[in-house]
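hey can u run this one w/ coenzyme A bound, need the structure tokens asap thx
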Amino acid sequence: MIIRAATYSDAGDIFRLLSGFVMSYRPDRAVFEDVTFPRIIEAAAEGRAEFLVAERYSRAVGYALALRMPTLFAGGTILELQELTVDAPLRGGGLGSALIRAVQASAREGKDVEVTVPTRRAADFYRGLGFHETASYLKWPTT
Ligand SMILES: CC(C)(COP(=O)(O)OP(=O)(O)OC[C@H]1O[C@@H](n2cnc3c(N)ncnc32)[C@H](O)[C@@H]1OP(=O)(O)O)[C@@H](O)C(=O)NCCC(=O)NCCS
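ok here u go:
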């Protein structure tokens, strides 16, 4: 297994992983291919995001997406993890931890102040990797 930056050729695998992961939204293939996926690849190329995949047998079997946000209050950038998933049959094998450790290493390298993650389902997973609770996360949908 290797952890590496996502590329355009991972689009099919990442859409499959995304579709198995999101619960509150229904991913649209055309929007993903034409808008969101290329936008995230571009953000990562410009250092505004970390977009990593876990590759096994030449396939992406997990991915992590974190966005690098400039702040005033923290005196620098914060890396916020927005998406993390591993193929269901491979869960429990260390891939998720490997992706998060790679995100943490990128944060150190990128001189981010901290890594944050909003989560409902996996708080104990993150606690095991050194995260601690700091705030609740609210949202206001525009539609
Ligand atoms: C959360 C997820 C990415 C973890 O990936 P993984 O490869 O299964 O994780 P690991 O094998 O590295 O697990 C490390 C430890 O965390 C625990 N763990 C894994 N998922 C967990 C969860 N959802 N909640 C609590 N603990 C969890 C594992 O049991 C393991 O514990 P151990 O070290 O005592 O054995 C994966 O379960 C997943 O894709 N879940 C569905 C999507 C999801 O919930 N994503 C998080 C959104 S914020």
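The longest strand covers residues 59-70. anyway lmk if its weird
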